[in-house]
From TrEMBL:
Xref: PANTHER family: MAJOR FACILITATOR SUPERFAMILY MULTIDRUG TRANSPORTER MFSC
Protein name (Swiss-Prot/TrEMBL): EmrB/QacA subfamily drug resistance transporter
Ranges where the record places region Disordered: 490-511
Chief localization: membrane
Gene3D superfamilies in the cross-refs: MFS general substrate transporter like domains, Multidrug resistance protein D
Molecular function, one GO term: transmembrane transporter activity
Family assignment from sequence similarity: Belongs to the major facilitator superfamily. EmrB family.
NCBIfam families, alphabetized: efflux_EmrB
A Pfam family that the UniProt record links to this protein: MFS_1
Organism annotation: Salirhabdus euzebyi
Amino acid sequence: MKDTKKITPRPNYGIIGILMVGAFIAFLNNTLLNIALPSIMSDLRIGPSTVQWMTTGYMLVNGILIPTTAYLIQKYSVRRLFLVAMGLFTIGTIIAGSAEIFPLLLAGRMIQASGSAIMMPLLMNVMLISFPVEKRGAAMGVFGLILMAAPAIGPTLSGWIVEHYNWRALFHFVTPIAASVFILGFFFLKDKKEKVNLKLDTFSLLLSSVGFGGILYGFSSAGSKGWSNPFVYGTIIIGVISLVSFIIRQSKQKSPMLNFSIFKFPMFALSSTITMVITMAMFSGMLLLPIYVQEIRGITPLDAGLMMLPGALVMAFMSPITGRLFDKFGGKVLAISGLIITVVTTYYFSQLTMETTYNYLVVLHAIRMFGMSMIMMPVSTNGLNQLPARFYPHGTAMNNTLNQVSGAIGTGLLVSIMSTRSETHAATMFQDAMKSLTIQPTDAAIEEMEQVIGMQAMLQGINDVFFISTFIAGVALVLAFFIKRASPAEEPEPIEDQSKGDIIVPKLAER
């Protein structure tokens, strides 16, 4: 009982609240950009394969930095990590808001990501050590409610700002809020941290960066360069070799930067696999729906944001309910129910037409988000529940890393499929159209025909991607049947205590 009290001290809700506000701002900024992507494409004169780097570049930095967060959480105090993370996020927001060219915008976005990469694992780790297993579902549900409020207001707010001002105003809106949160953290965030004698293995950091970075960059580049490009498959191969070397090196170290032995716990391994698969499928809706409604259907940014608002509100409303249901019934029933809904709604999204009604899109998206609300948090929490307390930093870092990797792979894969299929459909449609003509059309007529065919071909490409996403979600559904309710496992081996204490993560001080 003594050990349990040490591992789960009385929660300090003030500290948790500040951390949640910081995470909320970081998450809000991510959802703000989804609706703005078509406006950025138009203003900076770039295509979908280039603008996707606003998402994949963010994930690339996260994928490189998140593996180090297990080390950082053990080494430094919550206060120091929060201030560094929030400071980087604020600086990146200022740079992005003043950018006149895409490379500078992307640089600001990636600096934002370096702060966000620290923020989410830090908050998750504090939540895990602050609440016992039997109350963790409800706590994570409240955590999910706060974070789901970001996608609830993000698209609508983004649509209104883009329609009345400029996409740069999105960053100008976030800057003063982020700066205020930084100041609050500076004055009010305090925690006790015993000195920990840990050293960062720089060679492991290099292998991790090249490994995760190479894989992320390769898949992200596939959308614009094509899979046959040597640069694409070359970086993926280099990334895989580096990642394998990183895993081998970590398995031989007493104090690994990222502990891969956590995959010996079956429920954690299963939950990581399910969340990776469903993340790949989820990005089809996040990335392609704004392009469909604005580029193909001509719906305004504000209406596009309003279209996604009910779904986000449903997800936010369901989060605390799902948390309590998880505490009562476990993750299996929730995951299976949510995945069935997700598979069915994703299939219906593969049947979009030029005449699909606005209300139909609103309702279908809301139902899809209802299904999603029963998957991610319950599955992840169930997996983390099986880990002993000393593995919490590694578990949260691993989950966040794999989500970034799967998100980038999913984005790169789906965008490249959309581009390839759109080109194939366009070529076929153009040939059929030319064959049906009895007279030679003028250049103006051909140009107009190409524009119409281009829109129809892009629509077919988007439908193809949603159809493939249906099968991806189906894989996660099959895996969900193997979920079992998890509880903390016994230590597989004696703990070599390096911090001269029982708790690796800092104990949060009462104020």
